[in-house]
Amino acid sequence: MPTFGVTLPVAGHAWLEVQAEDEDSAIETAMEVVTSEDFVEWEPLRHITQGNVCYAPTWDAEAVLVPDIKNRT
């Protein structure tokens, strides 16, 4: 049986904490330092888009202050 090298597109999201002056800087920093270990959820797909259908998340990156998250009830 032959062996194949396969590339799969993936969709998902990562969560990581970074220090930055503001939300935009936090997103830029996260984009530079994110690793595969930061991914919380991901799913392999045959394709991300096909025709006018998108099978992946379509939200934008966002940053929130960590104390704001930890103090929510």
Helix-strand layout with pairing:
Elements: E1 10-14, H1 23-33, E2 39-44, E3 49-50, E4 53-54, H2 66-70
Antiparallel strand pairs: 1-2, 3-4
Q: What can you see in these coordinates?
A:
The chain is elongated and about 55 Å long. It has helices at 23-33, 66-70; strands at residues 10-14, 39-44, 49-50, 53-54. With 73 residues, the chain is α+β, with helices and mostly antiparallel strands. The longest helix is centred in the middle third of the chain and has 11 residues, at 23-33. Strand 3 (49-50) and strand 4 (53-54) form a beta hairpin. The strands form 2 sheets. Strands 1-2 form a two-stranded antiparallel sheet. The chain has one domain. 22% of the residues lie in helices and 21% in strands. The mean pLDDT is 90. The chain has 2 helices and 4 strands, in the order βαβββα.
What portion of residues is helical? 10-25%
Main sheet specs:
2 strands, antiparallel
> What is the tally of beta strands?
4
Give the mean pLDDT.
90
Radius of gyration: 16 Å
Percentage of residues in strands: 15-25%
What would you call the shape?
elongated
Order of helices and strands: EHEEEH
Query: SS-based structural class?
Result: alpha+beta
The number of domains is 1
Q: What is the subunit arrangement here?
A: single chain
Strand order of the largest sheet: 1-2
Q: Count of DSSP helices?
A: 2
Terminal Cα separation, in Å?
55 Å
Low-pLDDT runs of 5+ residues are none
